[in-house]
Amino acid sequence: MPSASFQRCRRCVMDTSDPEIVFDSDGVCNHCHFHDQIRSRYILPAGEREKALEQRIRRVKAEGRGKKYDCIIGLSGGVDSSYIALKVKELGLRPLAVHMDGGWNSELAVSNIENIVDRLGIDLFTNVVEWDEMRDLQLSFFRSGVPNCDIPQDHAIIAVLLKAANAFGVRTIVRGLNIATESVLPQAWGYSAIDLRHIKAIHKKYGQVKLKTFPTCSILELAYYYAFKKITYYDILNNLEYDKDKAKELITAELGWRDYGGKHHESLFTKFFQSYYLVKKFGFDKRLAHYSSLVLAGSMTRDQALVALEKPPYDDDRMHLELNFVANKMEIEVVELERIIASPPRRHTEFPSYKSLLFSDWATRIRKFLK
Ligand SMILES: [Zn+2]
Predict the structure, then answer these.
(1) Is the pLDDT of residue 362 over 60?
(2) What's the predicted TM-score (pTM) here?
(3) 11 and 32 in contact (C-beta within 8 Å)?
């Protein structure tokens, strides 16, 4: 049962499980206010949006002249990246699809990726991460007790995308970050995946396997890619009419895409991590942030979100199987994984990082930019 100090935003569905949430006198939370701030800046009115899209695509094509590819797209097999693959082809771009295989792909994700590149005629570059290294790094994060145990996968994706862009002389990485479905993301629930110092600090303390080939990107490399090679990200979904359900229908019809159930569940690790680990160990239910983003974007009503939240974030029977699967895959006993989940949570700030130098996520970056 919620505690006496429990409070839920009266506009979205975020609540005091975000320890840093702040409410105004009307009971509306800081995430709603932040959404309003960035929405007016990043979501252009119809008409202007198409113009911005057209201009950017023209620029990407001009920069890609004489090269094999115009842009890099990350391809996970999920909704956002599959939809982007379809759209960039429709817009006449020549993308290179890049996939980071961290060893946790669901079968559906793999078949989605194969279908997409086949049907659209896109070249695919897959970086298969050395499993021993991925496993050791993920275990280090579990053992450290910090919330964001998806940092190893996320960091590898960022590094692989940037390295591919650099190798092929491509200036634009088209990504799926978007205000329509991801504007709410509590800072206290995690930490940025970009910070290699933080990753190394946790791995040094809890890891056992030397990282030899794991894809990484240091601050200096980042500076080189961004400032010297002028590699930029294009968050194309902000310039498109983006409704997740319609996008799903479209990619199902056009690309033979098949649904796997939840946001970011194309990775079996992420599925376990988001729908079980974070809830059980920290009380963080990512659905709150996701549904809140949808409510604020107008693609879900607050009542619909509240009804959806009545369902438990995971099914106890199925999770028992998943717990076994994850422990098995990570080559530890189930009791050890249970012990990790039951051990006291720790904060990312307890470990060295470049937090003061880097912004902790894209939202903070925008926030700082707006100041
Ligand atoms: Zn709110």
Answers:
(1) no
(2) 0.91
(3) yes
